[in-house]
Amino acid sequence: MKVKKIAIVSLSSGILGEDAVAHERELGLKRLKDYGLKVEVMPHSLKGLDYIKEHPEKRAEDLLAAFRDDSIDMILCAIGGDDTYRLLPYLFDHDELKKAVSQKIFLGFSDTTKNHFMLNKVGLKTFYGQAFLTDVCELDREMLPYSKSYFEELINTGTIKEIHPSDVWYEERSDFSRQAVGSPRISHPNTGFELLRGEKQFTGEILGGCIESLYDFFDNSRYEDTVSLTQKYNLFPSLDEWRGKILLLESSEAKSTPDKYRKMVRALANYGIFDVVNGVLVGQPQDKAYYEEYKNILLEEIKNTDLPIVYNLNIGHSTPRCIIPFGTQAEVDMNQQVIKF
């Protein structure tokens, strides 16, 4: 399926509507139009940080409207943020999401992890790993080549066939101003997927996302009602539902300390997830922060020593970024350094 029309939604942060990112927004919209795509920025998604923060019901409205509009083939998240869980009542109290949802491409990452879980709950297969501001609006002269190849595959075919490691990884920018337009990122050679332990080949449907977002399912320190709300709507799948899946974990731009990372992995371990999944895929940390520490924590905290753990995927908050289909059978093959869908 070739995408003809994209809807852009702000489901977490409303930064897309701020003047500070106008140059990025223009760049991204031009790139999408250069692909021959029609773009609809949903009605509330440009209303800025304060409005979006105060109106979760309007964010939900935009998402539902994008699903109901038959002319829209793909829903692209503006960026992540930190409170998209607040959409839950507006999407689930009267089965709003279930009634509106239709087969479309949904793409986002970071806090959008929770939106992926919402859509998983109503049976939609989604795509994880890129967003409008972070990828399409890349300030370099074009999108980062590796990210671009996956984005183009998705809009041209409606699917992702396989992912390979990137040859390089990039440092995160410190300057996103208008002056930085056209400037390249600093790049380093990348070492490929790393098998920390377990079988070299395993299969399953992938689900997961940003570990800081997943931790909110178990911990109230960011917002006092994340645990109760996500439990009320059974947003985190049961162990039965996790059985046979592959868990994806990637870490945010917050660069959580090793102590915090250990707490987050342990919360998942205590839930029992590592006893039922077929494998774990872990994204490269942004700027390779705590690269070795995170690796050791995974090996120490995941007590199931037979469970395959693959590290250093180009997914999530490190650049460049591939796109991973959720809910589609995946074959991980470390001999070939490939994940096929």
TrEMBL record:
Entries under Gene3D superfamilies matching the protein: Class I glutamine amidotransferase-like, LD-carboxypeptidase A C-terminal domain-like
Domain (LD-carboxypeptidase C-terminal): residue spans on this chain: 203-332
Keyword Hydrolase annotated: yes
MF-aspect GO terms: hydrolase activity
InterPro entries the record matches: Carboxypeptidase_A_C_sf, Class_I_gatase-like, LdcA_N, Peptidase_S66_N, Peptidase_S66C, S66_fam
Keywords: Hydrolase
Domain of life: Bacteria
Pfam families: Peptidase_S66, Peptidase_S66C
CDD domains documented for this protein: Peptidase_S66_mccF_like
LD-carboxypeptidase N-terminal domain ranges (all copies): 6-129
Coiled coil: none
Family to which this protein belongs: Belongs to the peptidase S66 family.
Protein name: LD-carboxypeptidase
Organism the protein comes from: Lactobacillus mulieris
